Amino acid sequence: MATYTLFHNPKCSTSRKVDEALVAAGADVETVLYLKTPPTKADLERIIGKLDDPVGDLVRKDNRFKELGLNADDYTSKSAVASLLFDHPELLQRPIIETSTRAAIGRPPEDVLASFLS
């Protein structure tokens, strides 16, 4: 079984669900509490490079996004997303599951877990 890195926010029920499922499956998981230990710009660029989803999907478009006065133009390129999430890690969509070869946003958790654990 692969080694997984989980970029996790324990306050998020979806993130907790993915964490619990990986542990229950006996996966080797390195958990990164990204709000306490934000990913480096190199980490973000690595994740983006492995992601099949559109890069803009990594950005949460919630109240904080609006408070910062951001819009769609702020997350159109890989480098813009890496810079934005480096400056504002609270905008990182969670959870993110990463292996040595791929990364995915853990939403919906059932689909992503089935893909990673099969």
From TrEMBL:
Record's protein name: Unannotated protein
InterPro entries (UniProt xref): Arsenate_reductase-like, Thioredoxin-like_sf
